[in-house]
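step: validate -> pass
step: tokenize input -> pass
step: predict -> running
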Amino acid sequence: MVSLATAEHAAELTMRLRTAGVNGIDVVHGTAGTVACATLPEADFVVSAIVGVAGLEATHAAILAGKPVGLANKECMVAAGEILTAAARQRNVPILPIDSEHNAVHQCLRVGAHDEVKSIWLTASGGPFRTLPLDQFAAITPEQALKHPTWVMGRRITIDSATMLNKGLEVIEACRLFDVTPEQVRVIIHPQSTVHSMVEYVDGSILAQISVTDMRLPILYALAWPERPKSTLTFDLAALRRLDFEEPDFERFPCLRLSFEAAQKGGAHCIALNAADEVAVGAFLERRIPFTGIAGTIEKVLAATPEAHPGTIAEVLAADQEARERARALLATAP
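step: predict -> pass
step: emit ->
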């Protein structure tokens, strides 16, 4: 079975398969198509990697169908984490994080009990503007923001890394995935990106996961869990000269501050954080707002968002749409 975004693309692929004499493949499309793929009886593992809330309904459907899920879509957990994790617990379905930071936390948590965890430490490279003077932020161009110092990623996530909104989303994701409070999640700047995350236990022990900066490793971990198969993704400890760590600056990275505030309120504020950011990042990439306008847009949308805790996927998607409309309205009236 293959699912494409639109009916037009599905029809095109169906014709190409027919012309090539290929039979036995169902071609579907849209949300119904992704749900059909995610719940396919023959599938024994589902990887959720569609960007944004577009993959939410299929991810939820996979969990309801009892499928183990490898999660490479943090927006689903940010927008509807309470719903997804509750469904997973009810059906005893594992949600295995593929994001490198949460994958690292998952590995570190295997050695201790939940009530022994004091803090989860999410590491961040600091992006390309970690040392840029603050008075130059308004002049940052999309080309500059798209040059990440460590990882090669998609356009939105690369911009989110530059603003550290991406790390803020990961804070919320960690709260939902590992059932901890926002106060238990810490962010630390680590430019080498060698330590992917750490878990601090109540006795003072800190466990860190160190590996190459290669997404194949967390993907392998999730697909093979609970086993650890051999791989060629080895890390050269002899080449490691130093590990630097520093506290994040909320003035430099206001999106991170806004993320912690949204995490405290939960519900609609987490949904609005993600939705407003997606709209604002699009506007920045189209050069309609400055780099600093991303955080400004998000803050205004959050301020206008009433406290609410959607209980269904439909309510989550409605709240997401409302936040996007608020963000677009703000951008339409911006000077």
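step: describe -> Residues 123 and 188 are 5 Å apart (CA to CA).
step: cleanup -> pass
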